[in-house]
Amino acid sequence: MSYAYxxxxxxxxxxGVGKSCLLLxxxxxxxxxxxDLTIGVEFGARLVAIETKxxxxxxxxxxxxxxxxxxxxxxxxxxxxxxxxYDITRRDTFNHLTTWLEDxxxxxxxNMVIMLIGNKSDLEAKREVKKxxxxxxAREHGLVFMETSAKTSDNVEEAFINTAKEIYxxxxxxxxxxxxxxxxxxxxxxxxxxxxxxxxxxxxxSGNGCC
Amino acid sequence: xxxxxxxxxxxxxxxHNADSKKISxxxxxxxxxxxxSGNGYLVICDDDGLVHLITRTFQVTTFRAYQSAVxxxxxxxxxxxxxxxxIDEPDSNAILKVWDLERRDRQSNPICVRSTKLSKSEKPTTxxxxxxxxxxxxxxxxxCIALYKGDLSRDRNSKPKMLKELxxxxxxxxxxxxxxxxxxxxVSTASSVQQFxxxxxxxxxxxxxxxxxxxxxxxxxxxxxxxxFMIAKEDAIYCYTVDSRGPCYVVGGKKIILQWFRSxxxxxxxxxxxxxxxxxxxxxxxNFDEIESVSITILDIQNKFIVFTVTIREILSVxxxxxxxxxxxxxxxxxxxxxxxxxxxxxxLFKKNLYxxxxxxxxxxxxxxxxxxxxxxxxxxxxxxxxxxxxAVEQYIKTIGKLEPSYVIKKFLDSxxxxxxxxxxxxxxxxxxxxxxxxTLLFNCYSKLNSVDKLxxxxxxxxxxxxxxxxxxxxxxxxxxxxxALKLAEKHDRHSLYIxxxxxxxxxxxxxxxxxxxxSTEQSVQxxxxxxxxxxxxxxxxxxxxLKKLCSTSYTSGNVDLSDSSAQPEDFIYLLLDDxxxxxxxxxxxxxxxxxxxxxxxxxxxxxxxxxWKNESNQEKRTTxxxxxxxxxxxxxxxxxxYYQVLILAMSFDFKPAIVYIFEHNKQYTKLIHYYLxxxxxxxxxxxxxxxxxxxxxxxxxVFNTAMGDEMFPSSMLEEILNEIEKKSLLSxxxxxTSLIKSKNVKIGHxxxxxxxxxxxEKKTFExxxxxxxxxxxxxxxxKNTIQKLKNCAIVFQGLRCSACNNQLELPSVHFMCxxxxxxxxxxxxxxxxxDCPACTPNNKKIMDVIRTQGQIKDDEALHxxxxxxxxxxxxxxEYFGRCLFDDPSTFENQxxxxxxxxxxxxxxxxxxxxxxxxxxxxxxxxxxTIKPSTNPFDEDDDDQMRYDDNKNPFKTDYDxxxxxxxxxx
Lengths: 211, 970
Ligand SMILES: Nc1nc2c(ncn2[C@@H]2O[C@H](COP(=O)(O)OP(=O)(O)OP(=O)(O)O)[C@@H](O)[C@H]2O)c(=O)[nH]1
Ligand SMILES: [Mg+2]
Prior knowledge:
The complex is a heterodimer of chains A (211) and B (970).
Chain A: E1 5-13, H1 19-28, E2 40-50, E3 53-62, H2 69-76, E4 81-87, H3 91-95, H4 97-107, E5 113-119, H5 131-141, E6 144-147, H6 156-173, E7 185-187, H7 197-210
Parallel strand pairs in A: 1-3, 1-4, 4-5, 5-6
Antiparallel strand pairs in A: 1-7, 2-3
Chain B: E1 7-8, E2 12-15, H1 22-27, E3 32-38, E4 41-46, E5 50-54, E6 60-64, E7 69-75, E8 81-87, E9 95-104, E10 110-117, E11 124-129, E12 135-140, E13 145-149, E14 161-163, E15 170-176, E16 184-189, E17 193-197, E18 206-210, E19 219-222, E20 228-232, E21 236-240, E22 245-250, E23 254-261, E24 264-270, E25 294-300, E26 305-311, E27 315-321, E28 324-329, E29 334-339, H2 342-351, H3 355-364, H4 369-386, H5 389-398, H6 405-411, H7 418-430, H8 436-449, H9 452-465, H10 470-480, H11 482-491, H12 495-506, H13 509-518, H14 521-538, H15 540-556, H16 569-576, H17 580-588, H18 599-615, H19 619-635, H20 643-653, H21 656-665, H22 669-678, H23 682-692, H24 698-709, H25 718-727, H26 733-742, H27 748-792, E30 813-815, E31 821-823, H28 824-830, H29 841-856, H30 860-869, H31 873-882, H32 889-905, H33 914-917, H34 922-930, H35 937-947, H36 955-958
Parallel strand pairs in B: 1-26
Antiparallel strand pairs in B: 2-29, 3-4, 4-5, 5-6, 7-8, 8-9, 9-10, 11-12, 12-13, 13-14, 15-16, 16-17, 17-18, 19-20, 20-21, 21-22, 23-24, 24-25, 25-26, 27-28, 28-29, 30-31
Helix pairs in contact in B: 2-3, 3-4, 4-5, 5-7, 7-8, 8-10, 10-11, 11-12, 12-13, 12-14, 13-14, 14-15, 14-16, 17-18, 18-19, 18-20, 19-21, 20-21, 21-22, 22-23, 22-24, 24-25, 25-27, 29-35
The structure holds guanosine-5'-triphosphate (GTP) and magnesium ion.
Magnesium ion binds next to α1 of chain A.
């Protein structure tokens, strides 16, 4: 599997907001109605295309339970993107966002792209957090915002891909040091299985040079 | 942390003392230093330098590998090589040995195929080798790793490559190959995890994966598509891929051993906290008094279950072999863990209503589909009873194709669940398992739910993958949303239904017409025929226009023969029968194709023209119509025009021009005159007589007869009639006069001319005939005299020349009464019979023939024919009498016979009697005059004469006509 870049993501947020479901929907395109607590960190990967470039997304889905916080924190470090998730039907998950954000900012590299996600948009009837509130919070903290539903897959794809786009733009702008893997970005293997990817590799090299 | 744990199950059975204490006996007091398993063996090494190979049946082979002690051992998984590191002499470098377990020496000990002294004196801590025997690594206590490349079973002097020093003792190593021919070596120390790419010969770049490490035996490699190197830490198990951290599973306890078996992660850990919440398995309670309780936990990583936990004292190693797990304690006790079969696992899951897990598990193990369906159904039932209907439907959908749909549908029939039912039905359609009833139900659901959008979507997507009965769908849609029904109908070419809906539900007649117009001719004809009545009732004008268009295409396209598919005007006439004007207008549209019209069409057209004509008061228009009809009659091909029908029509409408035309056309002049007379149009009748009289004189008689009976008949015309009758002697004068006398309104003045001429003519005839009588009387008198003479007087033969050769007559000679004389030799040469005069024979023969043939006309038919053809039948019959044709034929024959008999008497040369006895001359003359030439019996005889053999005729060449002795007689 050849790719131009590998981006590492992390999904954080209170327990039960639907982090694992988002990941499952994104990687497997299915929905899990039963809440299987994440005990530790789960992991998923998928290949996407940004501006026709294949990009591999490696995603850590962390446990939201307070008890696992110490373990999950160690995963912030190598991530280029974070999905900060709250549940629009539970206000407390929204209220905890500040704590999560501080935590993330503290343990991750400063350039990490954070996408704020209000999940379970399909449960409009049970909504406790207005969309505007989410938007306002995102604006205030310089985040990208999106409401999703892991159940109906509404906006799920977009959430992951838009984050990737954002990261990609930052790379183009030269914000990321792509040679430092601690940033959660890795250049694809130069010696990939297909011969055709060799010119692609050259392109990347030249692209990097100009940045 | 115990409540933040995965679900617990018991999917393993434990078999304590699997080896019947064999191992502990063998080991005795020695200390086990290293264990391994693979390729059918459990391998146990001790500090005495012995290696114990244990087979499945617990047959033990013990051999001495080292003089002092065995430090490390690894058995290759699928090959018969065992690698060991041990010490032969104290204070010298350890020795690496490779054993071939297949090849045995005399003591049946494996043969050592390689023995290499390690290059370092430091203590080796870890050993690993790849199954293909090409890579091997030894880790040392100081953080060095020696990498051996090349066939490790060969004793070569190849020096190992020393990898980058890690500065800390190596606690775990594993080779991994994610991509083919790409080899990585995962290495763990107490405080780090890293990976070396050992693919290339020269450099082996290192990647640091984490800054946490693990103890001995606390790392394991999981091979497979997403291969992970796992290390066990106090708080959790961390996983690594070749390039990054992977997932992490939080499991508490101080880890002692990490092992992988099938898809299970086996963790042996010490409970640090004395609260020991985890120790709940009953079998472990007896060990509760132990100071240090060691528990073994098996995790199903995929499903996130704890599938087994047990507490066992002093676990030394966990060895997977022969499809199960073996747990070896320091004392040499061996326990076996056997995985339960799938069915019993599923039963457990069902009990806990973990259907989704059951499904996942069943799928993983290639469970057969029927059983899976059953799980889905149970799951669905479970969710249903829980009240999660949408969830239940989701499960039921998975049973489609196997489970009878009615099972599911029944459950959701309540209107509360209609949404779920809809989902199910939709899926049913998508899978192509839907019947008509399902379609009906689904559409009803849609309409009940008022979800027009969904319905539309369903309808639109139909083409691609959803199969349903379109007709039913349309019917159902009709009731709720005609809009959609129309769409459906249009999409699936249900034109007739489309029109039906337009007409019956929406009353959009013109729209319907427009729609039909777009269809192919065949289709539109079909549809129009079906609904023509409705169209006519509601939008007659448009309909007629439409029909005109439709029908003319059938004419112009030229394939009129395909009568079922194309539109024939006939087919639509019935619609317009009530409105003749309209019909006429309609049909006139096709006037240009008149020659293609059928007979019935033409009749109908004429009939309705007549109706219009009859109802028309405007004289001018009437004449136009008249002209039109006559034109059609004139111009039309006789084949298609049924004049008889038209005549009846014309009669019933009193449409004179057509009647007259047809009578004339059919040459039915009699009828025509009758018609005229019935109209009392006498002059027309007379005109007609004048016109056709020459060919049909009877017309005059007809008029005459009518005139006699009809008091209204203008007598002035009588003159002409009488004149005509007289001229053509159509009626006997007697009859005419009788009729005239009977007639009441005939004035003598009108017939005077007739009578005068009549009598004048009569008189002339009378005189003529009188003359004739006189002449005939004279003639017969003459003949009588001749006969008398012949009978009684002597005859003087005065002929001087031979009638044959015209030379002087010489004796002997022959003389006939006809005054012909011959030389005897001439007579003999020419005569056919001795009795006949050769000169007279032809003529006599002719006469005889006539008499004979006359007798042969016995055929009644011939007579009748002649009677028919002749104008004067009376004379014909009298002639027949004259010829005795009505006599009994036998008597005639007798007469002839008698006559013949008399001839021989006249053998002596004398006149042949028959010559004189011919019928009276008058008769043939009469016949020539009256009988048509072709029937003249004499003419026929002329023909016969032609057949007379010319060669025998002596008169033909020798004499010219003037000298012919018979010329006078002729
Ligand atoms: N209706 C609805 N339910 C959702 C959605 N996403 C998640 N859920 C449900 O929310 C529950 C929790 O989902 P998870 O994804 O397991 O939650 P999590 O954030 O991973 O929780 P932790 O692993 O404990 O951090 C599950 O029962 C899901 O079915 C959504 O978009 N809509
Ligand atoms: Mg989770």
